# Entry
Amino acid sequence: MRNDGGRALRWAGHPGTLLAVAVLAFNDRVGKRAWPGAVTGKVSDAAWMLVVPPVLALVASAVPRLRGRPAALLGVALTAVSFAVAKSSAAGAELASAGWSELTGVPSRTVADPGDLLALPVLALSWWLWRRSARPRPLRRVLALVGTPLAAAAMVATTPVPQTAPRLWSQDGQPMVYDGVWWTTRDGGLTWQAVPYGKKHPAPPAVTPDPAAGQCLPAPDRLCFRLRGYGLPVEASRDGGRTWQPEYTPPLRLTPVDGYGYWYGGGTGTDADPVPVPVPDPDASPHSEASAGAGASAGTGAAASAGRGGLVVAAVPGGHTVIVDYPLRGLQVRDVDGRWRGVELPPQSDSARAGGYELVGVPFMCLVVALVAGWAAVFTGLGAYRLRLDRASGPPYLPWWLVFRQAVPFGWLVAALVLGGGRVPWLAWLVPATVVALVVPCWRRPLPARPMGGGSTAGVFAVGAGVFGVTSVGLLGSLGSRFSWQGYCGQALLWAVLGSGLAAVVGASARPSLPPRYPLPVPAPPSAPSPPSPLTLRPPSVLPAPPPGGPGSKPVRRLGR
# Structure
């Protein structure tokens, strides 16, 4: 079928695709937490193979030359290549993590596992679903209207890894900590400042050295530190990593952490006396920095973190400091004078942490806002087509009906901006009211005289999916920073307006669907033979005898005796 852009829409609304969306969302949000292991990971990979190709094909259908089979092939190919690159090697995983972190601003980590490549054959099932979507079915478009935003959300809303302690790493020589809020320091870890909202948040590297291998100060100090794990002291080496001695054991102190129970954090230095570090012997034999061990590295700003611990050597005026994220005991800092102390992060208000992973309600409601923004763009495109086609011949109330349908999503966004304020209870009554108000007028009869062409329909839905995706990325970019509900809703409203303008152009320039170019003649069904008519017998005609002697009469011969 030529220019069949609507086939990608039917592919996204196929029951098999929607089932994969449900499995992916449930497994990432519930299954991996309840039953962690290889099985749930492989199930998510298989479901991801069924969800991503239709979404990519729908986005590619916005280009007229790619509609139909080329868009489907492009979606399957991009899915296979991206998954293979991310899972085949550590370099590919690092590239995928860096790309996703750059796009969203959220720390992400992709683990290279060649065993996950076993999910690639599932793409054959996805292609089979594409082939099964050849026949036009109106119900598939309705399902795609609901399923496409959910599929995009399932693709990006993966399982967040809960953190039981701040994560420590170094970004270009600058120590960084993330515990739901990004923190940085200017004095080597003694005081910490939250990264202001709106700035780009760096992501931790996907692969970091093991803190048990050690970190060394630059020459000529030859002083190294390492952290082997929970319950063991921080150890120091004054001979370049050949021998190690216990250096510092953080004091135990029970400190609550919002959303994750309790972890033992170090005090402010009053629970135990600081331990000075002996000055290295200047007459000690020098060792090359390479002798510090397999994992030891020289230089400043090198980070080492693994599991629940981390170690950073930071350069400050007058020397170097050592920052240790001790498992279950918090941040411990050794200053330039050789004294250790426990450091606590400044307290943050609930509004400052509203973008963290520990609060589930606000991110969920932000996804609802993104979904409504995408719907607003879709309804604008469909309304522009309907108004151009049926303005003269349609019912008299058609313009007012279309205006009302557009006012519902935009009015909801304005209400969320003004009344919500980031408080979920304010929006609890708006969600069901919006669903009812959107569904009833959206599918109300009469329908347009001629439906929109499949390619234009796919283009309108692609614009709506793009608005939803861009708005969702804005949410992910604000997680963990100083979240502003009004700012997020304002961005969603802005993207809805811009997307509606683009969708209106697509809808106003759309053409009605056309029949096939060469329609085949449909033979008429054979009719039953008519019953034979009864035979009518006509009686023979009787001619009167001619009069004697008249014309035509024969003389009568009389025979005598």
Observations:
- The CA atoms of residues 331 and 344 lie 7 Å apart.
- The first helix runs from residue 6 to 12.
- The mean pLDDT is 69.
